[in-house]
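Dock pyridoxal-5'-phosphate; give full complex structure.
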Amino acid sequence: MSINMTAKHARWPKANDVIFGLAGQAAEAIKKYGKENVINSTIGALIDDKGDLIAMKTVYEQFKALPNAEIAAYSAIAGQPDFLEAVQTACFRDHRPDAYTRAVATPGGTGSIKHAVWNYTNPGDEVLTSDWYWSPYNTITEEVDRKITNYKLFNDKNEFNIESFKEKFNELIKKQKRLLTIINTPAHNPTGYSLSDEDWKQVLDIMKESAKDKDNRIIVFVDSAYIDFAGEGTERRKFFEQFSNLPENILIIVGFSMSKGYTMYGLRSGAAICISSKEEIAEEFFYACIHSGRANWSNGNRGAMATMTTIANDEKLLKAYEDEKLMYKTMLQNRAKAFVEAADKVGLELLPYRDGFFISIPCDNPMEACQKLVDQNVFVIPLKMGLRFAVCAVSEEKCKKAPALIKEALK
Ligand SMILES: Cc1ncc(COP(=O)(O)O)c(C=O)c1O
């Protein structure tokens, strides 16, 4: 056994990312058997029917038209001022809450999660999220000596499990007096669930009750990474209005990502946007985050910010961008509909899907099922409690075929 050079806190199990591993196997299978004979649903990005990554034309035309110096320059630590305006409009659209808001640019939605975890929890704290969740929440929290605790996302009737949420929320707030809850909605990864406006009302009622204890500090992180691909029009943004006039000890932080909505995955841009009934609390958020920003990544991607601002401030460009995005949203919705209908036909059980890139299939032996599917040239992601199928990456035609193959593998 050789010595450790890393500090104690930096020693983690040697793990290869399962997703990238399976994506590699899928690429091999495509080479060997041809695209038409492989279903690769491992990738969490929009892929066209030919198997190529979608990069929105209306976005990259503007990005590439920027002067070199605008792409090359540093941005302000907090993000460019015009971007900080544009990103709030892009996030809230016509459902802006009646509250004080402040935004800080972050490298993707991931940076905003880091800000929330670091600045709003103490070492050793438990962070609450649902039992089906995006695994980097765990990576981000354990890195800084916090840990994830789960409530059950669904009850026996496959509805949002408000009872389980209430129980865990009350247990942790009682113990810690400070609680960060991460809610990934709309278009949850990996299930595709979106909290209804009524679900949100119930969640906020529980929090408001708890906020009567003035010593409690309640922070809600709304991970909206997939919001641009949810619902019709802006209906899936209506819940933002419920963040109006909250008690001052409830703070909302929205994680906004440009990765999916602008197909800028690798360009690393987004924002953390806070919502508070108190101006000083919003300002406190701002200064805490710019300190963290400086300490972690210094500043964000100026070219990505400028692209959003250019599009947002030009009616014609904005319309063209929205039209292009709608075309891909419709493509995604058609694929998901095909998958859900085909699953229904063959009696494959799914978790309640509403929107977004992924659909989950609960099962007992995800690893075994995944391996059986690999043998059929179907590549899905094994999770702790089931399989994740990425409709974002698979053509409608293949989305129709996959449920029968998955049903067979689960027998
Ligand atoms: C649930 C969820 N949150 C946040 C993100 C953030 O992504 P990014 O940092 O690329 O914006 C992702 C991306 O896959 C995600 O799936």
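Observed: The chain has a mean pLDDT of 97.
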